[in-house]
Amino acid sequence: MLQQPKYRVTDTGAGGAATNVRKLMPLSLTEAIDAAKDELIRQQKADGHWVYELEADCTIPAEYILMNHFTGEIDEPLEKKIAVYLREQQNEDGGWSLFTGGTFDISCSVKSYYALKLVGDDTNAEHMVRARNAILTHGGAAHSNVFTRIALALFGQVPWRAVPFIPAEVILLPSWFPFHISKVSYWSRTVMVPLFILCTLKPTAINPKGVDIRELFTIPPEDEQNYFRITTFLSRLFLGLDQIGRTIEKLVPGFIRNISIRKCEQWFLDRLNEDHGIGGIFPAMVNAYESMVVLGYPKNHPARQQARKAIDNLLVDRGESVYCQPCVSPVWDTALALQTLLETEETNSDSIRDGLNWLKDRQLSNEPGDWRYYRPNLESGGWAFQYSNYHYPDLDDTSMVAWAMQRSAMGVYSDAIERAANWTAGMQSRNGGFGSFEVDNTQYYLNSIPFADHGALLDPPTADVTGRCIALLSIANREKYNSHIEAAIKYIRQDQEEDGSWYGRWGTNYIYGTWSVLTGLEVAGEDPSQAYIRRAVDWLVSVQNEDGGWGESNDSYYPPKHWRLFPSTPFQTAWALLALLSAGEVHSQAVARGVDFLLRQQQLNGLWEDKNYTAPGFPRVFYLKYHGYNKYFPLWALARYRNLLKQGQ
């Protein structure tokens, strides 16, 4: 049976006299590593994997309630628990934000308010009055984003002219057309295709209680004329095309419309992904499920039941409250936990073997995938983020998993590593960088269409994913993949910010991006004395906090985009330390202070905790808290530091 870490406890007072004040002294480096390692291993699942909660903002649990009332499948006990969660997350100003400590977000606030009203909260209750006042102060529900206005249109709260014109016939457009579903990211197409059906048929929610939110509009929604914001010439052009489309829609023959709807239906049915849901992501799952209901699938239809089960699997019950995750992260959590344990010199432990074998069984081989649209002859070999998402493996998970396999020095994984590296190399974009799921997904003009007011329609190459791919290709076969690696490094150098950092698309933010790049460059054998790497090191040192740690808010995704002073967090301190260690800074004062911060922040169970959100789902639109990040990253950094000291580096 594992024991709790043994903290040294001393009684201290003025002049050293004994007092009643008890001070917990941090563990030594080795004691801290052993305590954290034991607890991390204890949290491993019986079959070898790790998975932690993946929490998002209140948009997701609010949408779960809206979905129930759209279909008329109300679960009052469950929804009351979700309402508890929503109330707990409400800010003092009355609204809801997208991440801990964030500012008011009108779309999240409108959905949260509507969900609470659907559950039965009295609009005269203090928290509802504060929420309503905050929403009206910020212009009212008409100023919500496109996804929110679509939800409101489905409930009859705004006219359909308040949302973009996205008819089912879009699915028939040829690939050479300016818009085609292959030209947007995987998350966009899985959300959009079932949405084509909903926006074409324009159903009205069952809404058994007849709840409306007209009180959230400053102008009656039917009279509102400014639902779309025009900021550029392209957005004006696309809005004009949107209006033309609405005008000629009545000319579409009935048989064409029917073919289009059925093609959209078959597209998402082919990607239902069993009990794990289309795309493995909540918004796509909900749109597919609601489309089935609208298309007349009975409750006992296997596909409808399967789709509903995938959604309900995302619920997290905390006893008094419940929330809904946007997806689950077992492959990512397992790969990172294994990287951490490998750093603690546990190279041949049962925990590592079990974890790697669990991952090996989930490598994709001949499964279908949308990535094949542009790479039909490329052999597969990637991993997905979730338990199952075989249409959508990603390069980030693939690189991290194969990298862990290589570090284990177990020859049984050599074929899996080579397949992963071959697939990764084949997914490189023309500019040398790597996106997460797509190749050359750089049709930036599409971010100006009315549907894309969230600015997250695409999956272009990013520095953080590219850094990870550099690492994989370097450890797999440096000679074979040399041209890919050199092109990626060239991309990295061109993508560096003026201050020396790199943007973090999938983690908050410049600290994450800089860690991802510097660790990849180390594995590739890049000389850390090069000027561009020294600039990155200087930047990291310059943003270290006085307490020795590092911290960065999700505000850095908003203009002006740069790091801003923020309290230190364990996970970001770990990223900064891993980045500095990769650049040869093991003996620097900055590293020593960062290590001391982590030792002082360690909890009684051996791990670390922090309330802050750790990553964007979509910058400025949707944020995530990976609950595992404070479990494994600090341990990884401490163990890496100890290993380099032992090696005399």
Describe this structure in words.
There is one protein chain. This protein is mostly helical. The chain has two domains: 55-224 and 234-324, Glycosyltransferase, CATH 1.50.10; 327-646, Glycosyltransferase (Alpha/alpha barrel), CATH 1.50.10.20. Helices cover 46% and strands 4% of the residues. It contains 22 helices and seven strands. The chain has helices spanning 29-42, 59-71, 76-89, 106-119, 126-137, 146-154, 186-201, 233-248, 254-269, 282-294, 302-312, 330-343, 350-360, 395-407, 414-426, 463-477, 482-495, 510-523, 531-542, 570-582, 589-601, 629-646, and strands spanning 8-11, 22-25, 54-56, 315-317, 322-324, 615-618, 622-626. The strands form three sheets. The protein has a three-stranded antiparallel sheet, with no helix packed on it. α4 (106-119) packs antiparallel against α5 and α7 (186-201) packs parallel to α10. The longest helix is centred in the last third of the chain and has 18 residues, at 629-646. The two termini are 36 Å apart. The model is unreliable at 1-23 (pLDDT under 50).
